[in-house]
Amino acid sequence: MPSESPLDGIARLRGTKAEKPFAPYFQTRYTCRRCFQPFDYPQPPSLRRRFACQRHCAAVNTKEHIMTVSPVALRRKTECKPHPTARYWKKCDVEALFGLPFLELVYQAAEVHRQNFNPREIQLSTLLSIKTGGCPEDCAYCPQSAHHNTNLGKEQMMDVDEIVEKAKIAKSRGASRFCMGAAWRGPKPKDVETVSAIIKAVKGLGMETCGTFGMLEEGMAEDLKEAGLDYYNHNLDTDPDRYNDIIHTRRHEDRMDTLGKVRNAGLKVCCGGIVGMNETRAERAGLIASLANLDPQPESVPINRLVKVEGTPLADAEDLDWTEFVRTVSVARITMPQSYVRLSAGRSNMPEAMQAMCFMAGANSIFYGDKLLTTGNPDEDGDRILMEKLNLYPLQFEPEGEVAEVEKASGIKADY
Ligand code: SAM
Ligand code: DTB
Ligand code: SF4
Q1: CA distance linking residue 240 with residue 283, whole number of Å
Q2: Which residues does a 6 A CB cutoff place in the pocket of ligand 3?
Q3: Which residues are [2Fe-2S] cluster-binding (predicted)?
Q4: Ligand 1 geometric centre to CA of 405 (Å)
Q5: Where does 308-400 have alpha helices with state H?
Q6: Which of 76, 204, 215, 305 registers the highest number of CB atoms within 10 A of its CB?
Q7: In this predicted model, what pLDDT tens digit does every residue of 115-132 receive, in sequence order?
């Protein structure tokens, strides 16, 4: 009998065939940070080094424009391809867009917007902080970090009934999506059970649901999907090259890992960032490039203008000129033509004309309701008046599943 390899021996004992048991020990399976496809690399590279897979991404594997990988084998579900990245966006190309004459840039963005969306429709999401304050992360922008001296204390998780009540009000005022946020580094298994019950209840109202609960461990995204979560919000927040200056308690790669898990579970991705954190234009371009190179691109891209909160390290950040904010929205629209671009935090001190310019440049979603998570937002009445003035109207959400069936069978719209 020919000598048996150790792998053949294990296979024989298990009663399985040892054709291709697993890759030899020196081959490590990585996940490309651009396309989320697994690929093998012949030697375990240092985690500090950056790699792209050798498929299409190799073409862009130049010194400045490579993507990071980490040794987590992820598979993207084949049905989960809403809008694959049409091209790879180099940071310098995005910066070149930023440098276009202002009105030319807005005009190009408006054209892209009209090719992909009804420019009169605005998606309305209402936010609720279901667990506020005391977060162990040290994000320099965030009033909820336990590392900063803001006047926010650590609160308990809100009660389910109270959350559902808030969601009903949001729906009655015209919001199509209810976004729930928690000041966690990531949820514990028990927290996933609690939020799953909440998601189920909100989904039952016939609204889209979105959650932002921090970094997810294996299996959690699937549990949230199962509970009825539609979107997971997890922002890249700033240029990957600057990430460590803004947050010291996690890495950009950790964010990417969670985004991979979210995508693999079949959840829709809401991923954006913040501008106005003393970054350079090149760094804003880096943020937009990192979002646009997610493949598939995120369905929803929140562009936040920093809300400066006393006690946070960025409380005295320099004001970003309004034109630079409109440029950021325009560049997001051009590079992510099929994504909803949300004019997010920071609207409270944006004049109406500036918001109108953002809508012109392709923003087609807002946070609707007088509070974001812990800071203020324009009230609904003001937003409705602004939308009327601009002849915009809320995007209607068509309910799916049980609610839709009941409505269809009875011919009566559910009374929420
Ligand atoms: N803890 C979770 C996380 O970080 O993913 C979820 C909540 S966290 C508050 C959600 C997002 O809010 C952050 O990623 C950041 O983009 C945004 N954010 C937080 N503080 C902000 C501020 N002061 N101004 C603008 N956006 C802010
Ligand atoms: C996002 O990109 N912006 C929202 C939402 N996702 C969760 C949060 C904005 C928070 C602004 C500061 C606060 O209200 O605490
Ligand atoms: Fe925590 Fe999220 Fe705030 Fe960072 S942004 S401190 S993770 S709540």
Answers
A1: 9
A2: 135, 137, 139, 142, 144-145, 183, 214
A3: 179, 210, 270, 342
A4: 36
A5: 322-335, 352-360, 380-389
A6: 305
A7: 999 999 999 999 999 999
